[in-house]
Design brief:
four-stranded antiparallel beta sheet, Immunoglobulin-like, 540 residues, 3 domains, Tachylectin-2, Chain A, six-stranded mixed beta sheet, 45 strands, mainly beta, single chain
């Protein structure tokens, strides 16, 4: 009989983060953890500067998770891009010379964290900078007067949520590499055509041997349907001893009866619950992560850690790390649901006398718009571990296109129409800002702006009759004031012309409903006098 995985938590673990006693809120949740040769590295979702919702911090342990280095922000959103609002839910793996970091973000910032997509960046260092997948490559390079500028680039989703943007969407990645195949796990939360909430972990695969592996992603369907009553996102590892894929999530998250849930899979495509672990865990836990090696594998004898956030006040959460082990069991299910977790008070840590700096950034909105000949002096600040800020007064500028702008004594002047990224550094800290230069007739933030272009977010949608998906046709509009917005609703001025009403209906907000006939439909999308065409192929 096949053996099954049993998670073992030998003790109560240790706290690696608590908000300081001067903070009204704070967190480091959803850790992604790598353990190699006894060294542990961990990345956490932390608050941003309130304009950007979340940043990623990094810490390292050389004693098996007993003590950790000071943290440092290693990834942030790219200004004025598809991920400008946040980088959230970190997921790391390493293949070849690159660390790959998956993350969640959205352009629909006013919706309260909905309409999410999944993105990825890569770096040769665990602390970045991470060049982001832009749809046709990694980052952006520009040769200027014989020198090469190398920038993070504006990211494109590798998993795009093509249903109602008012639902949570897609994200919360986990990655496993096995036999040169990359398994990509992600959350997909939406509503079906009959109004039911649909909460699943989906799986896709890609050819990790190719540098452009995001271009090879193939959808493999639903890995597991998650009960809507608090089953969290999956973090997946491959157990070499049992030759099985193992996922960890929290169950009954944010509740007094919360626990860890373990699922198992023979092929990495379909999962079944096998453990409910409650003893030694903290109540009110959520957003967990389980360690693996560079490819997210585990085996007997490895250093193995898991972590999660917990606490009974929203946004004021501790982070706890446990050493874990596993054993092979004969039974196909083991539960501690009837046992007790630990009702642990979150005791705030005392603020350090001199809290360590963690990040250098430009004050919001983290980019500049100038007219040709116009100048501005951007302001920069340091953040520390308590998210207190202080001015950065001696920054250095580099890695920019000096045919587009000049920078003299901190003053940025527009020279020619175009854009450039700029590296900004001080005292070992770094960030990258974006500067646009426009002609004099461009009116920024123009209330009477006009649409100058609109392009499809997807050219083809493929809903199925059996899946009850409700796809939403959206476009990216560019306006005369040089702003951009993802548009789909009548309030945005979008109008849909359905060329095949016998196959689909489409409402004023771009939501597509099959009539029950398999076939190919075409839709013309119009916005501000501009238009594009997409296909909708209805499958069984």
């Amino acid at each position: 009989m096949s053996k099954h995985f049993k998670l073992v938590l030998p003790d109560e673990g240790t706290e690696v983060y608590m908000p300081r006693d001067t903070q009204t809120w704070g967190y480091r949740y959803g850790p992604t953890i790598q353990c190699n040769n006894g060294i542990a590295e961990a990345w956490f979702a932390s608050p941003g500067d309130c304009f950007e919702a979340d940043w990623f911090t990094y810490r390292r342990s050389e004693d098996g998770g007993k003590s950790w280095s000071d943290e440092k922000v290693v990834m942030a959103p790219t200004p004025d891009s598809m991920d400008w609002y946040s980088v959230c839910d970190p997921a790391i793996f390493k293949y070849g010379e690159y660390y790959y970091m998956g993350y969640t973000s959205t352009v629909f910032a006013d919706g309260g964290g909905v309409g999410n997509n999944g993105f990825v960046g890569r770096s040769k260092s665990p602390t970045g900078p991470f060049e982001k997948w832009t749809g046709d490559g990694w980052g952006e390079r520009r040769v200027v007067n014989g020198k090469t500028c190398h920038w993070i680039g504006k990211p494109a989703p590798i998993i795009y949520f093509d249903e109602n943007w008012r639902d949570w969407g897609a994200g919360e990645f986990s990655f496993v590499v096995k036999d040169d195949v990359l398994y990509i796990y992600y959350t997909w939360i939406t509503h079906t055509s009959d109004g039911e909430l649909s909460n699943s972990t989906r799986v896709a695969t890609a050819d990790i041997t190719r540098e452009d592996w995001p271009a090879t992603i193939v959808d493999r369907g639903v890995a597991s349907w998650r009960p809507t009553a608090g089953n969290d996102s999956y973090d997946v590892v491959f157990c070499e001893d049992l030759q099985k894929f193992i996922s960890l999530s929290t169950c009954k998250r944010f509740s007094e009866n919360s626990m860890l849930a373990v699922h198992e899979s023979e092929d990495g495509l379909r999962f079944k619950k096998i453990n409910e672990i409650k003893v030694n865990t903290s109540y009110m836990c959520h957003n967990c992560g389980i360690s693996g090696d560079y490819h997210h594998h585990i085996k007997s004898g490895d250093l193995m850690l898991l972590g999660y956030a917990y606490g009974n006040k929203w946004g004021k959460w501790a982070t706890r790390i446990h050493r874990y082990d596993f054993m092979a069991m004969d039974e196909d299910f083991y539960s501690e649901d009837a046992l007790s977790n630990i009702s642990r008070e979150s005791l705030l840590w005392k603020r350090e006398e001199k809290p360590a700096k963690t990040y250098l950034t430009m004050v919001k909105p983290h980019f500049l718009r100038l007219h040709i000949g116009e100048s501005a002096t951007p302001e920069f600040v340091f953040y520390n571990v308590c998210y207190e800020k202080e001015p950065a007064k001696s920054v250095s500028f580099s890695n920019y296109d000096d045919t587009v702008i000049s920078i003299i004594d901190g003053v940025v002047t527009g020279l020619t129409e175009g854009y450039t990224f700029v590296d900004v550094s001080q005292d070992g800290f770094w960030c990258q800002i974006l500067v646009y230069v426009h002609k004099a007739d461009v009116i920024f933030d123009d209330p009477n702006k006009k649409v100058v272009d609109v392009v499809p977010m997807k050219k083809k949608y493929t809903p199925s009759l059996s899946g009850k998906e409700v796809k939403q046709i959206r476009g990216m509009a560019t306006y005369s004031d040089c702003s951009r917005k993802e548009v789909c609703e009548a309030v945005d001025g979008v109008v849909y012309k359905n060329l095949n009403p016998e196959i689909i209906t489409i409402n004023e907000n771009g939501l597509v409903y099959p009539t029950g006939i398999v076939g190919l439909a075409k839709v013309i999308v119009m916005c501000g006098g501009k238009s594009f065409e997409v296909e909708v192929e209805i499958k069984e």
